Recover the amino acids of this structure.
């Protein structure tokens, strides 16, 4: 089975600062997708960013970017110019292609943005 | 509006009383999944479906059933709920892009 590890259960950051959330995964596959999802107090799951493993370029979405290190099996999320609305639980997720629709999630990192 | 809906949103029931949580999507997505979320464990996939009449087990399928008779609907069935199935449940759907859209969640308590 695949495993996804988020080693930081809780983090905090000052408003307007930058924070990086870490995620590592274990797989023998070569073709897969990686995702970061945000879960605010409302409990809604919201896609933050996705990365296809075959793409060497790191994905970016406005203030959110990833550092994808395929050889190291690492997929960290960087949040720039942190805002109060970024306070949420963040989940890293892995999906391997060509084997149905199986997803594996990490245990999450609770991020608090401090005013 | 493109969305995934789940009903009910909250449910308190007793051990052994069969229940169904409905999930419906209006995006014509092929793929649908059910997850449970428990504190400290993240989301774990229960079952998934790749199209009508095509379903498969995820990581934690014990005690659950699903069916996919129509493309838009993917109900989750607990035939004999037990207290260890108390959890927050999410349904999700995706197209071939595999980016999942989640429903709002169903908070289930089994007494």
């Amino acid at each position: 089975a695949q495993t996804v590890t988020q080693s930081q259960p809780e983090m905090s950051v000052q408003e307007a600062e930058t924070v990086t959330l870490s995620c590592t995964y274990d797989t023998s596959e070569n073709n897969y997708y990686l995702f970061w999802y945000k879960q605010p107090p409302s409990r809604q799951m919201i896609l933050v960013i996705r990365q296809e493993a075959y793409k060497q370029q790191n994905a970016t979405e406005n203030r959110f970017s990833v550092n994808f290190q395929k050889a190291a099996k690492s997929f960290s999320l960087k949040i720039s110019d942190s805002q109060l609305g970024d306070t949420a639980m963040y989940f890293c997720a892995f999906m391997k292609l060509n084997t149905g629709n199986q997803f594996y999630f990490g245990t999450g990192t609770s991020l608090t943005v401090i005013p | 509006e493109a969305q995934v809906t789940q009903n009910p949103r909250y449910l308190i029931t007793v051990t052994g009383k069969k229940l169904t949580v409905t999930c419906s999507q209006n995006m014509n997505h092929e793929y649908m999944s059910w997850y449970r979320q428990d504190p400290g464990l993240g989301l774990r996939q229960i079952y998934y479906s790749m199209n009508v009449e095509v379903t498969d087990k995820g990581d934690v399928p014990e005690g659950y059933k699903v069916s996919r008779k129509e493309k838009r609907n993917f109900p989750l069935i607990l035939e004999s709920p037990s207290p260890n199935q108390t959890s927050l449940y999410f349904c999700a759907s995706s197209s071939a892009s595999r980016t999942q859209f989640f429903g709002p969640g169903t908070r289930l308590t089994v007494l």
